[in-house]
Design a protein that fits this description.
about 725 residues, 8-stranded mixed β-sheet, 44 strands, about 15% helix, globular
Length: about 725
């Protein structure tokens, strides 16, 4: 009996130890991931028989392999072992490094893949080559020979060809004959065929520069001349070397690339490209391209430099005659979207013409047949269309802006919207081609992503990855102390509703210090009921006794244009006003120490941190600013001019939006960190501010990261950065 008691006591002690483990920064940046198994790049095969995804290896978290979930058997298996195809260090071209940074793709192995139209084969790039995998075969076949780095790999619509870009030219491979053909050959130096330019990738999220016709007869492609773009000599500072890059960076107010758009039969060569007349105005953007189902018409979205006008244009592939079918206008700016689906005689189109992004059914002449969705909420994205039944599936924020759900509306029953997803939280949905089934990656602030397979009506067929928080889950030992945020709202000065979430520490007495974790910029949202890796460090801070506060100020995304527009030509003003409104709310809480409020953010959040420390020095005592924009004339055209206007026409806003004129207001402790190879927010932003503060005699602290880009990736680097941030707040707040 005594022996049994001792055993039971031992088990209880061990159980308590598992439950009560401290969430250290070292644990956050070690394996296995606290999120558990989180497959990425989820896709349903065209025939609906498989769900495919990439997953890191157990012995190398940075290397990804291609996996499948067989719907019929419920079994998971590795489809392609990336290490068996290439195991050495990958040698990426500078173009590919930049492209991956734009796509926020990190790691090695298989990071992208594409299904053939019939669901019989997969295509993926690896170490600069193209690999073709036929289901059932023992091994993938390499289609290219390593002569140049291959990017933007695609199947043709019927699966007879493979296309890719190499050395700034477009190639196709006939899968039957295995013959390779260069469709263009003069791409070199400043001339690039079928490639998306810097601002298209970074700001428009257009990652390609070519589009196959559905019948595979021809390809629409861009030709970009980067020579008008100003050359900036950029240093990339590494631990043991300094690389100099003459990067053509389109600073706000300076020339963009010259872009052309043409059509080319795949049986022809570059000299036979038929160029589309883009109009007399040359300083424009091509934001999207898409063929109509009949292969007789190509559509493209044309946007003027000010981004006040967007046109959907149809081009007759034979005659090159054009017509503008849709024109969107705005006094501020027009947000781009991916929500365009063509039927034979009409299409579904997203527009913010009533102040909120909604879906419209439009005929091929541009006449609106019906507004499918309506209300003071936004449609996120059109995700699928069931052509046979006329059902249009989309994700949106109809119920609350802090959650994303799947909805459906029928073409014949406009605005009769049905909610498909049910669980409260954020749903990321991927449909099969025929819209019969979908994958749902679901999460909340306390539940890491779970992936399930559903019928189109929402009925769950099976778990693909339940990621259950059971005894074996990596997060379980930390759940006892895991803090669930409290959500709430306050009112902005113009009467609009601001959403916040607050992490409140448990087990502490007295008034607590606050860290205001901010982003604040457009096209982003922090306050959602969803899982995010960025929340790990917030959990660590709140478990140490800090109150952590987040507020989405006006200008943030997913709330409609009325909520976004107040920042237009007034960057850093309204955002800070709303953050200070949040601080006033914090001061009403009896556990908050109003004299110990800090602020922390990265990128636009880094900019907001500096503006907070400079313009509200009596409020914020400590600031940690990551990779901040400091001078908007040093940022790119498409992003900056969208919100601040052209500096040649609106120089006053640049003067008031840059941080330098407010630097005298710095009173507290400020840490600025920046990647020394950042090609997005150039390191010049930081060095320019360093010099300015030094000239003013203002003390501040710096941490730089050799070789790091804007995102500052890598577990060792990430751990060092996290320790630096926490130590700075511990010391000064």
């Amino acid at each position: 009996m005594k022996k049994l008691t001792i055993i039971l006591l031992f088990i209880l002690i061990q159980t308590f130890n598992i439950i009560a483990q401290e969430l250290t920064l070292e644990r956050i940046y070690s394996d296995p991931s606290l999120a558990g198994k989180t497959p990425s790049k989820l896709t349903v095969s065209p025939d609906g028989k498989r769900a495919t995804y990439i997953q890191p290896r157990a012995d190398d978290y940075n290397r990804y392999d291609l996996w499948e979930y067989n719907v019929a058997t419920g079994k998971r298996s590795m489809l392609v072992d990336s290490e068996s195809l290439f195991s050495g260090p990958e040698s990426l071209s500078d173009e590919e490094k930049a492209r991956r940074e734009r796509q926020r793709i990190y790691g090695k192995g298989i990071l992208e893949y594409t299904w053939s139209a019939d669901g019989s084969a997969l295509l993926f790039p690896l170490n600069g080559d193209v690999f073709y995998y036929q289901l059932g075969k023992a091994k993938a076949e390499k289609l290219t020979n390593g002569d140049g780095f291959v990017t933007d790999v695609k199947f043709s619509p019927k699966g007879n060809f493979v296309s890719y870009v190499k050395n700034q030219n477009l190639y196709i491979i006939n899968l039957k004959t295995k013959q390779t053909k260069a469709l263009t050959t003069s791409g070199k130096d400043t001339i690039k065929f079928a490639m998306a330019e810097f601002v298209a990738q970074e700001e428009m999220k257009r990652m390609t520069g070519y589009w196959w016709a559905p019948d595979e007869s021809e390809i629409a492609l861009t030709k970009v001349d980067t020579s008008p773009v100003k050359v900036a000599t950029r240093n990339e500072i590494y631990a043991d070397s300094i690389k100099l890059f003459d990067q053509r960076y389109p600073f706000a107010g300076t020339p963009n690339v010259k872009i052309e758009l043409g059509l080319l039969k795949i049986t022809q060569s570059e000299s036979q490209i038929r160029w589309i007349d883009l109009g007399q105005e040359q300083d424009i953007y091509i934001t999207r391209g898409k063929w109509l189902p009949n292969s007789a018409t190509f559509s493209y979205q044309w946007q003027n430099r000010s981004q006040h006008e967007l046109q959907l244009r149809f081009v007759n592939a034979k005659t090159l005659s054009q017509k503008t079918v849709v024109t969107e206008t705005s006094d501020t700016w027009i947000n781009l979207h991916e929500s365009l689906y063509y039927f034979d005689d009409s299409f579904v189109w997203a527009s913010e013409r009533d102040g909120f992004q909604h879906l419209y059914h439009v005929d091929l002449k541009g006449n609106v047949k019906a507004q499918l969705t309506k209300g003071d909420w936004i449609v996120d994205k059109l995700v699928a269309v069931d052509k046979a039944n006329g059902d249009v599936y989309f994700t949106g924020r109809k119920d609350t802006p802090i959650e994303r759900h799947l909805y459906v509306v029928n073409l014949n029953k406009p605005q009769q919207i049905k909610k498909v997803s049910q669980r409260s939280g954020l749903h990321d949905v991927t449909f099969s081609e025929d819209a019969s089934v979908y994958l749902d990656s679901f999460s909340t602030t306390t539940q890491p992503p779970q992936v399930s397979l559903h019928q189109a009506n929402g009925k769950q067929l099976t778990w693909m990855e339940q990621n259950k928080l059971d005894a074996s889950h990596p997060l379980t030992p930390y759940l006892n102390d895991w803090i669930k945020p409290r959500f709430g709202t306050i009112t902005a000065e113009d009467g609009q509703t601001l959403h916040y979430r607050i992490f409140e520490p448990k087990g502490f007495t007295g008034k607590r210090p606050v860290i205001n974790y901010v982003y604040g910029g457009p096209h982003a949202q922090l306050v959602t009921d969803s899982w995010s890796k960025r929340n790990y460090i917030l959990q660590h801070l709140v478990q140490k006794g800090y109150v952590v506060f987040q507020l989405d100020n006006r200008g943030s995304y997913n709330r409609g244009k009325k909520f976004e527009d107040p920042i237009y030509q007034h960057l850093g003003e309204v955002e800070l006003t709303d953050q200070l409104t949040g601080v006033e709310y914090l001061k009403t809480l009896d556990y908050v120490d109003p004299n110990r409020i800090g602020v922390y953010g990265h990128s636009y959040g880094g900019y907001m941190t500096i503006m907070s420390m400079f313009k509200a020095g009596d409020v914020f005592k400590v600031g940690v600013s990551g990779a901040p924009v400091t001078d908007w004339t040093l940022y790119d055209t498409h992003y900056t001019e969208r919100y601040a206007g052209h500096p040649g026409k609106n120089g006053k806003d640049y003067d008031v939006s840059n941080v330098f004129k407010y630097a005298e207001g710095l009173k507290g402790d400020l840490l600025i960190y920046h990647g020394m190879a950042d090609d997005n927010v150039l390191f010049t932003h930081a060095t320019k501010l360093f010099k300015h503060l030094q000239d003013l005699g203002k003390p501040f602290d710096v941490m730089t990261y050799p070789g790091s880009k804007h995102s500052i990736r890598g577990k060792k680097t990430g751990l060092h950065l996290a320790k630096t941030i926490v130590r700075y707040f511990d010391k000064n707040l």
